[in-house]
Write a structure and sequence with these properties.
The structure is a homodimer of 373-residue chains.
Chain A lengths: L1 E5 L3 H11 L5 E6 L10 E3 L2 H5 L6 E4 L7 H10 L3 E4 L2 H6 L1 H11 L3 E2 L10 H8 L5 E7 L2 H13 L3 H10 L8 H4 L2 H15 L2 E2 L14 H9 L2 E12 L2 E12 L11 E8 L3 E8 L3 H16 L11 E2 L6 E2 L1 E4 L4 H6 E5 L2 E4 L2 E2 H10 L4 E5 L2
Parallel strand pairs in A: 1-2, 1-4, 2-3, 4-5, 5-6, 8-13, 10-19
Antiparallel strand pairs in A: 7-9, 7-11, 9-10, 11-12, 14-18, 15-17, 15-19, 16-17
Helix pairs in contact in A: 1-12, 3-5, 7-8
């Protein structure tokens, strides 16, 4: 396998290092804007040099962002090159464009590192689908949020302190919105649901609530009631009805999710015959992420394409209900669904997930958290 | 694929049911001593009928026990048939006989359901080995013991009550020794280490301490000191030195292992580049176990044989140290290594694992538990 590697940042460099020791694949060109020299690959500044190189059969995209990543990936597919990427935003956003294109061209398109970093989650979904149907996917998919929430829970930090610490350690970006507003988890949920259920979720119907409004007082409130807060994704299929959402979720102390420390991920599926399975590991970082990029290259060599056939577009129905902790805003509707009072915060009775997220859109200063069933 | 199925108990019936819905494989004969009729397969009472059936390319062994399972599996390999089994005792015990035979014949031999039941643990080790080396394997591999210990921890039951409850629910055998004395976990550890490290561990050097001497007072003692007890396997390789043992182990409350409920398993590996990964799921039961038997059949169809090349025989060196909780026996040696007193029980300073297990052999009424690092 001759690889053209797009990007030489955190992940790209890891891919280069891991593949350097292998006989079955070789990074022959690296697209990188900086002037660097590499012992085993040519550094190029122009994507055309990779696109037009007929010896390159596989493009590994490790640049991140939507553009020009999308344009390069699309052009590479058009030129008959297989794609491996760790870019969840790219795949979730252009799913309906890139996947049918790869399928029609008979090319491989893999993105295992895009969800779960070092966890082989998407590959495991591919394996599960060989034998059974999956009714639920979801879990803790963002290490940054888990680090912040875990620091608040175990060390009693306030949100700002925990975020600063995560930024100092390189776990959070200077502008943390993609992580803390749940957008990264949202991309990962859409991708996981699409593959697990063999569909293409209508993305507009998938809401995401984030953690940026959580306070130390909320976390203390949860602890007093025996709960730990995590940012969690949840996707289900049942008799052709699809549900999907991202939201802070309260787990009983002692639950598996509650025990996930620092920046780790824990992703779960419910299989028809295998039952519940969870996968725990490093959700990000150079080597864990590069590891699954290289795993995808090995899978590609063994003839694997995408994880499932491209499936039909489906709408999302979030009429399922949850009880919610709501703090920071109230109105007649919240009062009408209130069931308990936790130190001034409302805990509702069962409320439709779609209704609560619609309310949150109009009350952006509120913090909400569902109570896990 | 034409399957000859040996045994029609819990697992065998599950395999029959799951494969019945598939086009790519068919159970054509079932070896079963009872007089039953099946819509899609011939029931035979004599193994020769399967052995001599040239249309059968794959034998699925779901009988359990060492004999005649071993004799049937060996004869099937000699006759050129692939093997899929969920029998951990069989594979661990006859590893040095069956694996080289399968390898020399170019036949597939798979046993994913033998460790972790519904968890694709051994398949995951196979995948991991494509890209990196593994330095540690282990974890909670026996659902019966986890059920007993979890009931003692969460419900405050005594050992006898918890065992009776596990027996009533079908989680424990009438004679529970294989589970509670750690023998089942020992087989699974040997198999996992052999595959993860690509060796064949000298089994005599792998000690197992069980849970049958644990008392409600021990569990209360652990809780008072912030710990939860689990039966755990542990295998490592480092610079050609191999360590492997099974023992009750104390985890801090809040640790992932401490949160594993009822009869679930949690199995962990440390990868050179992927870091720590853990796998959680149903470690036993008809459908989870049959699920991975069928997964093995699918893997076999895609050309997969065993998980790793058969490796060289290696001795085990358990000179690594742990701190131990010791209750129920004492002597000059225990006094010499004692560091703390927990309500009358000794907690030692760091002691070689091999030394502690040697001492336990001479003090079979004692209960020991290592403190997780």
């Amino acid at each position: 396998m001759k690889i053209g590697l797009l990007g030489f940042g955190v992940v790209g460099r890891g891919v280069y290092e891991i593949t350097a020791a292998r006989d079955d694949m070789q990074v022959v060109k690296v697209l990188c804007l900086e002037d660097i020299q590499l012992p085993d690959a040519e550094v190029v500044h122009d994507f055309q040099s990779i696109l037009n190189d007929e010896s390159i059969d596989t493009v590994v995209e490790a640049m991140g962002g939507l553009h020009p990543a999308y344009d390069f990936v699309r052009a590479a597919l058009e030129a008959g090159k297989n794609i491996v990427t760790s870019n969840k935003a790219l795949v979730a956003t252009f799913y309906d464009d890139l996947l049918p294109l790869a399928e029609s061209k008979g090319l491989a398109f893999r993105c295992t590192a895009a969800v779960g970093g070092g966890i082989g989650w998407l590959s495991e979904l591919e394996r599960v689908r060989r034998v059974e149907t999956v009714s639920m996917v979801g879990g803790i998919m963002n290490g940054t949020c888990n680090y912040i929430l875990d620091s608040m829970t175990r060390l009693g930090l306030d949100y700002g302190e925990a975020l600063s610490q995560a930024q100092a350690l390189g776990y959070a970006e200077r502008n943390p919105s993609t992580d803390v507003d749940g957008i990264d988890t949202w991309h990962k949920l859409i991708l996981s649901s699409n593959i697990a259920f063999g569909v293409s979720l209508e993305r507009d119907g998938v809401p995401a609530a984030g953690i940026s409004k959580i306070s130390a007082a909320d976390v203390a409130n949860f602890a007093e009631h025996g709960y730990v807060c995590k940012l969690v994704s949840h996707g289900t299929q049942c008799d052709g009805v699809y549900s999907a959402f991202v939201q802070p979720t309260l787990y009983a102390q002692g639950a598996l999710e509650a025990a996930v420390p620092t920046n780790f991920n824990l992703i779960t599926l419910d299989g028809e015959v295998s039952g519940r399975q969870s996968f725990y590991g490093q959700g990000a970082g150079r080597y864990p992420t590069a590891y699954n990029v290289v795993q995808d290259c090995v899978s590609l060599l063994s003839g694997k394409g995408f994880y499932c056939p491209y499936g039909k577009k489906v709408t999302v129905d979030n009429s399922c209900t949850r009880r919610y902790y709501v703090r920071g805003a109230s109105d007649a509707w919240i009062q009408s669904v209130a069931a308990e009072n936790w130190n001034g915060a409302v805990v509702t009775g069962p409320v439709a997930v779609s209704e609560m997220h619609a309310w949150l859109k109009n009350n952006p200063d509120a913090f909400i958290a569902a109570i896990a069933e």
